Amino acid sequence: MAEQPPRDRWRSQCDFLLSLIGYSVGTGNLWRFPYLCYKFGGGTFVVAYVVMLLVLGIPMYTMEVTLGPFARQSPNVLFRQLAPLFSGVGYGIIIIGTLMCFNYNVTITWVLSFLVASFRGELEWSRCGHIYNSPRCFTVAGDERCRSASSGADVFWNNTCYPAYQLLEGHAEPNKGIALNMKPDISQLKDPTLWSAAAAQVLYSLGCGQCGLFAMGSFNRLNNNCMRDAILVSLVDTATSVIAALIVFSMLGSLAHTLCRDVGRVVTSDMMVHTPLPPVFSALFFVMMVSLGIDTQFIAVEALVIAAVDQWPSLRKQKRYLAVGLCVLFFLSNLSVCMDGGMLIFALVDHYAFTFSLFFVVLLQAVAVGWVYGAERLIGNMRSDMEMGLPPALAAYWRLSWRLAVPAVCLLGLATTVYLHQPASYGGRRFPVWADAVGLGIMLAPAALVLSTMLAEAGIRQGRPHR
């Protein structure tokens, strides 16, 4: 067999740290986290998110980033060596990473489309009268015309000028769409749906169970302090999400004050239209979104390429062509989302592909590492082989998290997801039965692969002296 080239290495620790931040901090920090904050009561969701970050996010992030340089393999090969009975966990992670790339491609394409549209003299979505406008369409220009015609007494709404007193519904002031939405409601902490949503967002935002962290960690030096980097990036990611929520809520409060409406009535309005120089602010916003999303997608695709190379080492010299082929494959598959009904495909995949699969794969990953390989053994590797300083309290935190807290949270998430499961819908209309069947197949594919691989491994090794 021809000798394979050595595995790539990061040129510096700074490269690795910035890549981790680029992978974890993405578009979900700016749109998904603020949306969940609004849905679950603002500060209440932040409290649940921080708790889930401590008991689930940071331990799993540290585990994946640490296993990378220690094993120097992608998850599909790593788990086969670490715990053969759980070798399917790595393939389940690959499937989730592939589905994540599919959806993320669409999101970035939308952002690029809006970015191009922002360089026009007038934003296309700043006017009413389009076929996609709802009766609640509002424009600043229309509002100014109404106020000029009535000396400031009317407000533009539903393509009509209304007296302002008819629209006064306890409207919010800008400094209050923050106070109201970020104040925690302790009574809501009893809702298991809140905790399940917070746990899923932690995994989704940090990128746990999605292949990228294993790939980036595998390019590290063995003596690099991955634990410190993992904790730092987790905190940076959380801070970015909270700051994004504060910005969104402040803009919603300002818009609600302008429209004399309650915050809940303006969530669906476009905020960029109501800023000074809308095209400039819109372009800056979408440039930021592209910069946040594109590095996440780069690393996600690279992780899949590395996984294929680790599975079939003979492909290592053709890695460049493999990457091009994978990008072409994603491009062709995403064309289906650009056609009529494409939004339905995106909604179906988004509804079924991630929450259940993420909880299931992360649960078995924690069991494989925390119990089969052994949390104490991994802590010993971190101390001796990777030369990390682990105080007894921190070692106990990792041990309890990997063996008890993470499995318990994932079991809670699985139970809540199954119990509260609803068929997919879009625009208030439910998908047909056959579409739901396809969605369920996507949702159960990683779990089915993991379980079938586990049974196959058990059958192959039955009666042999292997552990």
Helix content: 55-70%
Instruction: Categorize the overall geometry.
Output: globular
The total number of structural domains is 1
* CATH architecture designation: Up-down Bundle
Give the integer mean of the pLDDT values: 83
CATH class: Mainly Alpha
CATH topology: Amino acid/polyamine transporter I
What's the helix-strand series?
HHHHHHEEHHHHHHHHHEEH
Q: How many E strands?
A: 4
Q: In percent, how much strand structure appears in the residues?
A: under 5%
- Report the span from N to C terminus: 29 Å
Counted by DSSP, the helix tally is: 16
Rg over CA atoms: 24 Å
The residue ranges in which pLDDT falls below 50 over 5 or more consecutive positions are 168-172
What does this entry look like structurally?
With 467 residues, the protein is mostly helical. The chain has one domain: Amino acid/polyamine transporter I (Up-down Bundle). 67% of the residues lie in helices and 3% in strands. The strands form two sheets. It has a two-stranded antiparallel sheet with strand order 1-2. Strands 3-4 form a two-stranded antiparallel ribbon. Helix 2 packs antiparallel against helix 8, helix 11 packs across helix 12 and helix 13 packs across helix 16. About 1% of the residues have low confidence.
